[in-house]
Amino acid sequence: MRNMKMGSSGGGEWPEIQGMPWETFCARYNFHGMVSRSTVMDEIRQLISRVSATDVTVLVFGESGTGKELIARCIHRLSKRAEKPFIPVDCNALPGTLLESELFGYEKGAFTGADKSKPGLLEFAQGGTFFLDELTNLDLTLQSKLLRVLQERQFRRIGASRQIPLDVRIVSATNVPPDEAVRKKQLREDLYYRLNVVPIYMPPLRKRREDIPLLVRHYAERTAQKEGLRMRRFSAEAVEMLCNYDWPGNVRELKNLVERLQILCECDPIRPEDVLKVTHIGSHLRLSGREAASEPILRYHELRKRTLEEFEKKYIERLMRVARGNITLATRISGLTRPTIYRMVRQYLQNGGPQNGRKSFERADGPSRAEFVTSAQNP
Fold first, then answer.
1. Which residues contact 350 (CB under 8 A, 6 or more apart)?
2. What confidence tier does 283 reach under pLDDT thresholds 50, 70, 90?
3. Of 19, 121, 178, 230, whose CB neighbour count within 10 A is largest?
C-alpha cells in the first residue's frame, strides 16, 4: 500500500498520483476522509482503529488547521456509536454564560428571556459522540461543571432539578499543548486527566510533506465534483513548489488554495506562476539543503564565506528549477534583483557549476529557456 517513495521535492511521482483512477486513489489513500501515506499518519490511523473500538475519552492536540475534528469524526464513524449523532462544539464561539446554556439546555423561566424550555447539545448528542473543540477556551468555572458531569455521568438543564443520565463519548481538542495549557491555568489539571485517557497528536503539514501531493489531488478532485467543473491538473513543478512551502495554516490552508486554483485558473495544467498569482507562498519557499555546519577550527570569515556560498548554490539550483529557468518568475519568487540572480547563475550554474542542475531546468521550452540562457550571459 505504501510502496511508493517520495523524494524531497514531491514532484517526481506526481504524474503517477495524478493519473491514478479516482476509485483506486481513494481505496489506497483515503481512510474515512483522512488522506495520507506518511508513516506518522499511518500510526495515527492504527491508533484511531484501536481507540474507536472502546468508549474512552480522547484528547486531540495540534496546530490549527491540522485536522483535529477529522480525527474525532473518524473515531465516531468507526465506533459502535456511528449511527448516533456526532455533535461538535466550538468552545471559542460563545462566551461562558451562553455556552453553558447551549451545552446543558435550560428550563422555561430559568433566566430572563427563557420563554420556553430548550434541550442542550449534550441531550442532542445522547448515544453518540460529543466533540469539544478549542477546549482551553472554556472558562474555568464551566470546566469545573463539565468535570462533574463527566464524573457523575449525568447533568441538569439550567433551572431544573431532574438529573439526565449522560450517554455520550467525549472527544476534545486543543491547539495548545495540554501540559502547557495546564501550566498556564488555561485548563484545569483534574479535567485534563479526565479527558486525556488517550492523547493523539496531529502533526503539522510541514512534518508530513509526502502527503501534500495526495492532498492536492484529493482537494482538486473534490472541488471539481462539488462545483461541477472539469478538474484542472497540476504540473509537477507546481506540486514541487507546494511541497516546499511550510503551510502555517496546515491542511486547511492547502485545501483553500487548491479550491481557489481550481475555480480561478483558466490554464491546464496549473503552473508555478499560476500559483503565485493567487497566493504569497513564493516568498516563503523552504530550502531542502542541510544546515550550514562546519569545522570549528575554521576562521570566522572563511566559515562565513563557505556557508554563504553553499546556501546560494542550493538556493539558486532550487529557485531556477521551480521557476523553470524563467528569470522574471525567479525574481518574483525570491525577491532578489535580476542582476543578483544573473550573478548567482553565472557563478554556480555556468562557470564550473553543477551541470546536472543546469540541465534539469534548461529543458524548459520557449522563451523561459531562452531568457535564462541568453540573459544570464548578457545581463
1. 358, 376, 377
2. low
3. 178
Q: What angle do CA 361, 364, 368 make, to 5 degrees?
A: 100
Q: Would you list the DSSP string of 292-336? A: ----TTS-HHHHHHHHHHHHHHHHHHHHHHHTTT-HHHHHHHH--
Alpha-carbon separation of residue 363 from 325, 352, 368 (angstroms):
9, 19, 10
- Of 137-151, 219-233, 294-308, the one with minimum mean pLDDT is 294-308
The pLDDT tens digits of the residues spanning 178-229 come to: 999 999 999 999 999 999 999 999 999 999 999 999 999 999 999 999 989 8
CATH of the domain at 20: 1.10.8.60
The answer to whether residues 171 and 132 touch, using CB atoms and an 8 Å cutoff, is yes
Residues 169 and 270 occupy one common structural domain: no
* Cell numbers placing 22: 479516482
pTM metric for this prediction: 0.71
Q: Amino acid identity, residue 353?
A: G
Instruction: Give DSSP secondary structure letters for 66-90.
Output: S-HHHHHHHHHHHSTTTTS-EEEEE
pLDDT at 336: 85
225 assigned to some structural domain: yes
Taking the C-alpha atoms of residue 70 and residue 146, their distance in angstroms, rounded to an integer, is 23
Handedness of CA 353, 358, 359, 360 (dihedral sign): positive
Locus of grid cell 531556477: 320
- The reply to whether 180 and 66 lie within a common domain is yes
Are 44 and 25 members of one domain? no
Domain that holds residue 275: 1-29+208-286
